[in-house]
């Protein structure tokens, strides 16, 4: 097995039911991500926490200095874990994420977080384009209902479509239990 790294994408308070952009089943997703985080800490796997902030007020969410940008309490980074603050959907764009992965000798990634159809998608695709084998834990990622041209697509279907696309052409998609070997 190659040197593994864990990327936790945008599991911030903004996505909780009390936030401005609540996501489908976020509590269960965060619980699963927490299990993966605890496991990575036990195994000394490098951990990268990604936090989204819109720095120029272009959106009413993820405003720097607000409670919404804070990490969810159970997913707070430890002192020795890397935090990447991003201002774009893709965690690699305009950040030193690639340099941090290189500095930790990471050759393969496990990715969890939110939103599956946006920031998780962009990170997975960019990582694969850079040559990283990627595993996505489908039950440690989530999204929300999407509307397009008068049609509402339920979050569960958005999630299924994203995971099917990842599995089809970008990497391994599995459950938290399978990944942790508890199934």
From TrEMBL:
Q: What residue stretches are annotated with the Isochorismatase-like domain?
A: 6-155
Note the SUPFAM superfamilies from the entry. Answer: Isochorismatase-like hydrolases
Q: Which Pfam families match?
A: Isochorismatase
Q: Does the keyword Hydrolase apply?
A: yes
**Which keywords label this protein?**
Hydrolase
Q: Which GO terms describe its molecular function?
A: hydrolase activity
Q: What name goes with this protein?
A: Isochorismatase family protein
Organism listed in the record = Halomonas icarae
Traced from the root, the source organism's taxonomic lineage reads: Bacteria, Pseudomonadati, Pseudomonadota, Gammaproteobacteria, Oceanospirillales
């Amino acid at each position: 097995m190659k040197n593994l790294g864990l990327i936790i994408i945008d599991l911030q308070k903004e996505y909780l039911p009390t936030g401005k952009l609540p996501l489908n089943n976020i509590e269960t997703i965060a619980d699963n991500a927490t299990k993966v985080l605890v496991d990575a800490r036990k195994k000394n796997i490098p951990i990268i926490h990604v936090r989204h902030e819109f720095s120029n007020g272009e959106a009413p969410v993820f405003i720097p200095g607000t409670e919404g940008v804070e990490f969810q309490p159970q997913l707070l980074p430890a002192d020795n874990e890397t935090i990447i603050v991003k201002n774009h959907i893709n965690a690699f764009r305009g950040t030193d994420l690639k340099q941090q992965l290189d500095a930790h000798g990471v050759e393969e990634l496990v990715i969890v977080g939110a939103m599956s159809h946006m920031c998780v998608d962009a990170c997975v695709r960019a990582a694969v384009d850079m040559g990283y084998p990627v595993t996505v834990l489908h039950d440690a990622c989530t999204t929300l209902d999407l509307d397009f041209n008068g049609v509402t697509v339920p979050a569960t279907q958005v999630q299924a479509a994203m995971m099917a696309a990842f599995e089809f052409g970008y990497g391994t998609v599995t459950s938290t239990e399978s990944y942790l070997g508890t199934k």
